[in-house]
Amino acid sequence: MMMNKSDVQSEVLFQQEFAIRGGDFVNAGESSCKIRNTLREIGIDSDVIRRIAIAAYEAEMNVVMYAENGVMSISVYREEILLTIDDKGPGIEDIDLAMQPGYSTATEEMREMGFGAGMGLPNMKKNADRFKIMSELGKGTRLEIRILLDDKNG
Ligand SMILES: Nc1ncnc2c1ncn2[C@@H]1O[C@H](COP(=O)(O)OP(=O)(O)O)[C@@H](O)[C@H]1O
Ligand SMILES: [Mg+2]
């Protein structure tokens, strides 16, 4: 039987999920740190890990800063790594505007903590091979970040 590309991709080699609490600045960054360590343990290329870790950290912080709660999930396939972040929250009214470098609705308090540069979403996109953002006002936001793996990682 012939196997096509999507058959191969659907076989998940590794999967992990993390709950993120909105407003929880104390534990903020923990999930993306765990993801980085796990990817190291399973031997993923360090440049791929760096890109995933940046995207995961920025996405995690956005849930902490702007949403009520969320789930971040990492799935490793032979040909790609998929990072998804689903949150329950206000959603994003104007995605094109939110994607613009420097755009931020961070509060004064968040800016004092060093957040609010407005570079999170642009950096997620820059570090991804495929970047998808979906948002529904009053409901929440979903991000899908994919990094393609060379054969040497499989
Ligand atoms: N998960 C989210 N829920 C609601 N709004 C969000 C979310 N992520 C980003 N945003 C909005 O998009 C803006 C830009 O996000 P980002 O590029 O990460 O910059 P920053 O976090 O520094 O504000 C945020 O200021 C916020 O208004
Ligand atoms: Mg951000």
Keywords:
alpha+beta, 36% helix, 154 residues, Heat Shock Protein 90, 6 helices, binds adenosine-5'-diphosphate, binds magnesium ion, globular
Helix and strand content put the structural class at alpha+beta
Number of helices: 6
Q: Taking Cα atoms only, what radius of gyration do you get, to the nearest Å?
A: 16 Å
CATH fold description: Heat Shock Protein 90
Instruction: Tally the structural domains.
Output: 1
Fraction of residues in H or I helices: 25-40%
Strand sequence of the main sheet, in spatial order? Answer: 1-2-3-5-4
Largest sheet: 5 strands, antiparallel
Our estimate of the beta-strand percent is 25-35%
Overall form: globular
Quick structural summary:
This protein is α+β, with helices and mostly antiparallel strands and 154 residues long.
Protein described:
36% of the residues lie in helices and 29% in strands. The model has no long low-confidence stretch (mean pLDDT 94). It has a single domain (13-153), classed as 2-Layer Sandwich (Heat Shock Protein 90). Strand 4 (130-136) and strand 5 (140-148) form a beta hairpin. It is built from six helices and five strands; from the N terminus they run H-E-H-H-E-E-H-H-H-E-E. By secondary structure, the chain is an alpha+beta fold. Helix 2 (30-41) packs antiparallel against helix 3 (46-66) and helix 3 (46-66) runs antiparallel to helix 6. The site of adenosine-5'-diphosphate (ADP) has 23 residues, from helix 3 and helix 6. Residues 58, 61-62, 120 line the site of magnesium ion (MG).
